[in-house]
Amino acid sequence: MKIIDAHSHIDYITHKIQPNVVGTICCAKNESEWNLMCNMINTDNNIYGAFGIHPWFLSDVKNDFESDLKYLLALNSGYMIGEIGLDKYKPNMDKQSDVFIKQLDIAVNFKRTVFLHCVGAWDKILHLFKQYKKSELPLIVVHGFNDSENILKNLLENYNVMFSVSNIKYINMIPDDKILVETDAKQNVILSELVNKISDIKHNANMCEIIYENTLKVINNG
Ligand SMILES: [Zn+2]
What we know:
By secondary structure, the chain is an alpha/beta fold. Helices cover 37% and strands 20% of the residues. The chain has helices spanning 34-43, 65-75, 93-110, 122-129, 149-158, 191-202, 207-219; strands at 3-8, 21-27, 47-51, 80-87, 114-119, 140-143, 161-165, 179-181.
């Protein structure tokens, strides 16, 4: 059994902690973590990095963060974009939107996988997606999805998306080739147990391999 954690953070490098986990996609919270993440990636081949500014951590966003982000991406073809998005329950939606749109634009231009955080703001995000041609948008990894089945269907029908899950809530609605597993840095999510549960529900003994292949696709920017 080989698993890559599709969404964690710098304080929880899953493959150093959990059995059967061979790699970790580490999502940045904001620019203050980018340097450390670069060092971690350079010293551990099994850490993959998504660089960005999370909607919860906007307080010290630099005016020129875009040029810093572009610089990192230009130098490192494997770097992805995350964790970015919108959260209705956190302050300052105008600033959240501004920072998110700038990062989505960069992801489109650099054709890099996006790790998306969206809570209660799918109307806004779907509206933003419509500003692009579908073929322009990169692979979008929706993390911790917790909204309506209609939105999930809409995303699957219209966009190049995958879902990284830490529980089985929506698992029957997500096609096998769109499933990823994540801890989101939570110690109580044991990925090998989660993958086994998904295999049982899907009646597919190859789910572990399929999820692993899906994650490699993510790492290779779709
Ligand atoms: Zn996260």
